[in-house]
Amino acid sequence: MKLKDLAFVIILMILGELSAEEKRCDFPTVENGRLAQYYYTFKSFYFPMSIDKKLPFFCLAGYTTESGKQEEQSRCTAEGWSPEPRCFRKCTKPDLTNGYVSGVKFLYKIQENMRYGCASGYKTTGGKDEEVVQCLSDGWSSQPTCRKEHELQCSSLRLIENGYFHPIKQTYEEGDVVQFFCHENYYLSGPDLIQCYNFGWYPESPVCEGRRHRCPPPPLPLNSKTEKYSTAYRHGEIVHIQCELNFLIQGSEEIRCENGKWTEPPKCIEEKEKRVCEEPPFVENGAANLHSKIYYSGDKVTYRCDRGYHIRGSNEIACNRGKWTIPPECVENNENCRPPPNITNGAVVGVLLPSYTTGSSVEYRCNEYYLLRGSKISHCEQGRWSSPPVCLEPCTVNADNMNRNNIEMKWAYEGKILHGDLIDFVCKQGYDMPPSTLSGLSVQCNRGEVKYPLCVRKESKGICSSPPLIKNGVLISSAGGIYENGSSIEYRCFDHHFLQGPREAYCVEGVWTTPPLCLGM
Length: 521
What we know:
This protein is mostly beta strands.
């Protein structure tokens, strides 16, 4: 080979190597998965990676590759990584109440179908006897559920004094949730959320009470105790006071909250001698747990009932100044419960029975990523179930809302954002928080809703004129004058109207953001 030809071949080889180097693959971000730890530790050594090199990756728990595997390899090509290192959430076989699932699989891959059907008298989400749903990247295409053909509707709710609720309907369907609010200087006495169940509304609607009627913690005398204790009490609420062992109560055992003040509390006087009680009283169809032949003031005895009977009243009595407190009764178990109530976004663990005896209990659990609020155990007591829990929705961050508010997420969150979780945002480049903002850029997931913070341009010097007025509402902040960029004002609705939209409007580059609406009830 001539020297000239050899030089030409060498030049072609060098150009080929340079071309290959230009097409190397950078360090990838594996959505819902990870690389081996040494790739992170020695990142500069392995990346960029050459063409045709293979990179193994694995998925986090609950996720699979697009082909349904837990681990897979991606190859570096001239167009980038192939396939793209990405993991998708697996779909789990639902625990259907009043229904069944065709097949025995527990996990389903992306784009895989599942058929389910409902028992007689129940219909699928689409109103059919059977339905096919598909596993998508964010879960089932529609949540498999079996509902009664003719579900009970809850009656409309009456307006509450000094407050309002939302939404307002003529009739409500099973699963509907209503939230209550109070006017200024009033507070809710009771739950702020109630739900329509197959047996009606639960729990009972709250009331709005004036703050001036609330009482502070009760004034407990020395050497006393109380079974109930809170930081605030409503008007008319009663607290029972008991004296410690070897102390006698002098005065009323009850104190009452009246217009923000407590009635006169009793005193606990030390006993000069121990008083003896006779043998504990006999209870029919039951027995006492006797542990002594002589009982003094302060001694206690517990009772249990025979099989087929249950306790009515307290199962414990005490010797008090020579006398026993009122003993319980043992009554026959003759009032059974029907199947426990359904809850939205959750279900009872295990198989449902057609009837439950008094004293039975069931356990609830929420669907994946929903947070259980309340006791997970519900008890059958004389034909009625104790309060079931509520499943609070997770939050989803919306890209359009972030763009409108000039913000982006500070961290990449794995999985769902549950109720109560903090979400950290940062301002986009060229934007900053308004000067009057005190809440910061961290917000809390509240029952599936996210209140997005707002960022404004750093270099903006725009000044706003008087803020817009709204129908059926007023400005809480003082109107008139000049408002600097980033300042805010707050709106409030008149009585019997509720606020729709953000409570505050901001001055952004000389223009006010959209004010809220005040809708009539």
